[in-house]
User: Which sequence fits this backbone?
């Protein structure tokens, strides 16, 4: 490749800056000051910012300094110090671009953007310097760790920049539209770099057998809003997924937990942190067989999450009733309590107001969201899944709703989560990963060697021309291995 794309701030024009303020460092002639490398340095700082936010959404966006390794920078340009000094120099009328935090033991120099450049949108910049492009592309090659290569090399084949592409400018424009609509600069920055990685063919793959057991990649980390811009060999990509995945694998687990089962033995063994907690729950709780059947019927009919709507509304309404009485003082100063029918809706409207006008504080505002008077299937799904994955007694009304329908199953799950709530989550995710990666994906690759596909947790993604074939194969395979036919849906990304 003869060029490489990076991201820059829209309000920075280094070419004009260099004309107006050529470097005054006697040790660096202007001909040696590389505009492409200057833009790359800014790109590196923006990328570090995106990485911080991606790892911790609560991290400060602009105040923290971003550490850049001198060894890495020198590998791209031996005169990197002069370039950084130029970006840090406070020129008359236009000021500096970078602010610097000095080196300290164990920490590289840190850089952050001057306040003038905060909240600015990004645009692509194409590096054409041949030596710099060569070095960037060399460092862009995906190298799988030995364990990853052994287990998941068959999934890596289709991460090919010539075949997996993105409608780059359209995706960036959509990202800008979302920023203007929601005002979330953190998400904007993170998504911009995820889009860029697909554009440049910068792929990553990871797998942690100790936690979720999932295969993570650019596809799994790509936001739903931007999947419609992905293409493979020019074709639109779509997905086939298991509806109500966690309840489906929980149904398989409780339906087989008393029997000898080779699949469960591979997922649940003494090497796993959840093993002893599962075994304790298995012995301590006797799950009712009729309840298991009722649980399964609800899932396989597609009505599992809908079945909680009435119960949730009942419990939420009780909360509404208890908290909707407010004291009114009479003429003698004595309190009388009267029902305030608008109390709930005022609270909900206030929450909506803050969400719309102050989205940057959404993560703080979310916990104060009042219960809705009308529960949708989507809302019930979100809350029931959150309850299953959270500490016991965190989602009290959702627990009450689940327990009212499936009391012994609830007790079984609660016992597993008793010491550490993550044990249940990891158990379910590792079951999902076992069936989707080791059975469905591997067999699909063996049988249809030329059919491109990607895994997305409980989904298989493929091109539209192969969608029906993969859907049929996934349905047949899971039915044979689970002993029942799960609800499987095809979803088009456009």
Assistant:
């Amino acid at each position: 490749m003869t060029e490489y794309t990076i991201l820059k701030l829209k309000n920075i024009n280094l070419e004009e800056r260099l004309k107006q303020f050529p470097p005054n460092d006697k040790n660096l002639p202007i001909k040696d000051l590389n505009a492409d490398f200057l833009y790359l340095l800014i790109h590196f700082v923006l990328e570090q910012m995106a990485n911080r936010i991606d790892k911790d959404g609560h991290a400060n966006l602009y105040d923290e300094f971003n550490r850049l390794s001198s060894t890495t920078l020198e590998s791209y340009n031996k005169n990197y110090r002069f370039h950084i000094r130029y970006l840090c120099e406070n020129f008359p009328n236009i000021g500096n671009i970078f602010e610097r935090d000095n080196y300290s033991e164990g920490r590289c120099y840190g850089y952050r953007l001057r306040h003038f450049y905060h909240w600015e949108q990004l645009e692509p910049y194409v590096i054409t310097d041949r030596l710099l492009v060569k070095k960037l592309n060399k460092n862009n090659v995906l190298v799988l760790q030995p364990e990853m290569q052994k287990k998941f090399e068959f999934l890596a084949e289709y991460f090919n920049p010539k075949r997996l592409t993105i409608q780059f400018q359209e995706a960036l424009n959509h990202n800008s539209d979302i920023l203007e609509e929601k005002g979330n600069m953190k998400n904007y920055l993170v998504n911009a770099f995820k889009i860029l990685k697909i554009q440049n063919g910068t792929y990553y793959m990871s797998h942690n057998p100790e936690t979720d057991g999932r295969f993570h990649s650019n596809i799994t980390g790509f936001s739903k809003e931007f999947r419609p811009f992905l293409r493979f060999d020019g074709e639109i990509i779509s997905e086939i997924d298991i509806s109500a995945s966690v309840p489906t694998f929980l149904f398989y687990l409780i339906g087989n937990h008393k029997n000898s089962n080779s699949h469960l033995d591979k997922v649940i063994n003494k090497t796993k942190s959840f093993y002893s907690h599962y075994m304790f729950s298995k012995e301590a709780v006797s799950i009712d067989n009729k309840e298991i059947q009722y649980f399964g019927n609800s899932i396989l009919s597609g009505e599992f999450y809908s079945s909680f709507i009435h119960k949730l509304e009942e419990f939420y309404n009780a909360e509404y009733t208890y908290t909707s009485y407010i004291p009114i003082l009479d003429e003698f100063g004595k309190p009388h309590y009267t029902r305030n029918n608008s109390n709930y809706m005022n609270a909900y409207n206030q929450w909506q107001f803050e969400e719309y006008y102050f989205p940057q504080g959404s993560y703080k505002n979310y916990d104060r969201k009042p219960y809705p008077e009308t529960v949708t299937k989507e809302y019930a799904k979100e809350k029931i899944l959150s309850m299953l994955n959270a500490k016991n007694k965190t989602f009290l009304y959702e627990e009450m709703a689940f327990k009212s329908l499936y009391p012994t199953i609830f007790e079984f799950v609660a016992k597993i989560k008793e010491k550490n709530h993550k044990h249940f989550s990891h158990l379910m995710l590792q079951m999902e990963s076992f069936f989707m990666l080791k059975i469905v994906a591997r067999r699909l690759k063996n049988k249809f060697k030329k059919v491109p596909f990607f895994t997305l947790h409980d989904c298989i993604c493929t091109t539209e021309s192969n969608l029906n074939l993969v859907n049929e194969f996934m349905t047949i395979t899971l039915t044979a291995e689970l002993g029942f036919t799960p609800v499987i849906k095809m979803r088009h990304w456009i």
The two ends are 30 Å apart (CA to CA). Confidence is low (pLDDT under 50) at residues 322-327, 336-345.
